[in-house]
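Worked example 3 (structure in, sequence out).
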């Protein structure tokens, strides 16, 4: 409604001065949507709950920090539910990052049951707070009312692959930290042994690769049903296929040649960066920089 009002007002005023850059990009004035008041309250509460354990660090006990993180996880789930059930569902780079952060937190909560010594407050708290606030600021565009009922499933597959690869990246960062600690005898012991972290990292990579493959295959075979158009070779497709190829090479190299350590972690980071550019990065450029739906 706000966008139509801006266009109507511009039409009534007549053509005004336009910059050459806007003419090249065919930009139009656009009011970015934002979350509802309830959504904002939930988002702010979630961000504060995520940030407290990360910022306090060792000044608070592990049990208390985990209690606050559990509260953040619940509030985050309520925030996502309010965004999807409180009206027309929206999706964009902000909600995608928010769902990814929630999935990584879910994985961490499950892992803590098996590995109580696993600690990653800072790696989860700060990105989680940022992702929730981004989703409130940029909730994305409403899904079309005539969209396929299978579209949410396709989006869920893509976001789940994002979450698994993000979990792999977090474990790779912990793996690098554990490797540095091994070289420094005076350093305190890490949260998990290096080999355990390495095994968990590649399990997440494999699981994410399976879901990413399913997402790409569904988009290729059922693009007409899901999006009302055939497979398109746009930037999103190219970045997605490049990330898929990077992860495929990483998994083959791991199995056939025993790739590990910093080289394997760097390839994981490269694949994750390409995947981030594929959807979240492209939607950020369209929604924020170019102000296009």
């Amino acid at each position: 409604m706000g966008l139509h009002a801006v266009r109507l007002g511009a039409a009534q005023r007549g053509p005004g001065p336009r910059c050459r850059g806007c003419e090249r990009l065919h930009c139009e004035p656009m009011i970015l949507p934002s979350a509802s008041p309830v959504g904002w309250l939930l988002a702010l509460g979630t961000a504060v709950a995520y940030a407290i354990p990360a910022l306090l660090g060792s000044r608070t006990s592990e049990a208390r920090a985990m209690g606050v993180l559990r509260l953040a996880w619940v509030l985050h789930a309520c925030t996502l539910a309010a965004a999807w059930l409180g009206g027309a569902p929206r999706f964009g780079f902000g909600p995608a990052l928010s769902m990814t952060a929630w999935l990584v937190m879910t994985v961490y909560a499950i892992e803590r049951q098996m590995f109580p010594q696993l600690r990653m407050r800072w790696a989860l708290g700060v990105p989680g707070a940022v992702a929730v606030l981004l989703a409130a600021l940029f909730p994305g565009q409403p899904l079309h009312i005539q969209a396929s009922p299978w579209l949410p499933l396709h989006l869920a597959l893509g976001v789940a692959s994002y979450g698994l690869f993000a979990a792999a990246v977090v474990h790779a960062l912990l793996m690098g930290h554990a490797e540095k600690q091994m070289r420094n005898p005076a350093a305190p012991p890490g949260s998990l042994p290096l080999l355990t972290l390495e095994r968990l990292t590649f399990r997440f990579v494999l699981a994410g690769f399976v879901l990413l493959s399913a997402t790409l295959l569904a988009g290729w075979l059922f693009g007409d049903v899901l999006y009302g158009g055939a497979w398109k070779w746009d930037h999103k497709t190219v970045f997605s296929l490049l990330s898929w190829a990077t992860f495929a090479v990483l998994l083959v190299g791991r199995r056939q040649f025993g790739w590990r350590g910093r080289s394997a972690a760097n390839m994981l980071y490269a694949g994750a960066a390409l995947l981030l550019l594929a959807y979240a990065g492209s939607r950020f450029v369209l929604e924020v920089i170019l102000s296009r739906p």
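Notes: The chain has three domains: 1-31, 35-143, 149-293. The chain has eleven helices and two strands.
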